[in-house]
Design brief:
By secondary structure, the protein is α+β, with helices and mostly antiparallel strands. It has one domain (49-176). It is 43% helix and 25% strand. The chain contains two helices and eight strands, in the order H-H-E-E-E-E-E-E-E-E. The strands form two sheets. Strands 2-1-6-7-8 form a five-stranded antiparallel sheet. A hairpin with a 4-residue loop joins strand 3 and strand 4 (118-120). The longest helix has 71 residues, at 2-72. The protein is elongated, with a radius of gyration of 30 Å. The N and C termini lie far apart (110 Å). The mean pLDDT is 84.
Length: 178
């Protein structure tokens, strides 16, 4: 009979052990879930920063192409940007072929077109993104054009993040500046 009483005690002990094991598993799964959520947030933040860096780089490159366009068209270096008197903020995208298509910076977001995988300011067929791109053009010297491409986007916490890429372009022949 003594053995029977011990079996009842062991049955209760087994129930407690199962409850402790379930609690330990639940806590470990909650910890793993929290780590996965944090990992996804960091991944999203990194993706946004990488996209913004590429968009800022593209802004500088498109503006450089406007300078090169002058030379290929037979105009003096920087004619396009100097003639527009662009000590201002402008918007450029892949469709900006010359200074006649430049628009003043409006703060509108860039649109992503999944069919072409390009970003631009054309909302037709595009999806609005969280990114804005501001191109600042300045002329510190008659033979120099300074371009700053600033891309901004809201982070997961709601703060505004930005990438600011700058480049200076110089006339290789100072006598040909406009």
């Amino acid at each position: 009979m003594v053995q029977r009483g011990n079996n009842k005690k062991r049955n209760g002990q087994s129930l407690v052990e199962v409850m402790v094991a379930i609690t330990a598993l639940t806590v470990s799964f909650l910890g793993i879930s929290a780590l996965l959520a944090q990992s996804l947030a960091i991944s999203r933040s990194t993706t946004d920063e990488l996209t913004a860096t590429y968009l800022a780089s593209e802004g500088v490159e498109i503006t450089k192409n406007l300078i090169d366009h002058d030379v290929y068209a037979g105009n003096p270096w920087g004619t396009c940007l100097f003639s527009q008197n662009l000590n201002a903020d402008v918007e450029v995208d892949h469709a900006t072929a010359d200074c006649t298509t430049l628009a003043a910076f409006s703060g509108e977001p860039l649109y992503y077109h999944s069919d072409t995988h390009l970003y631009d300011y054309d909302s037709n067929g595009g999806t609005a993104t969280i990114f804005t791109r501001d191109i600042k053009v300045a002329h510190p010297q008659p033979y120099e054009i300074t371009v700053a491409s600033i891309v901004q986007w809201p982070s997961l916490g709601g703060n505004l993040q930005s990438i600011d890429l700058r480049d200076d372009f110089y006339s290789w022949n100072a006598t040909t500046t406009p």
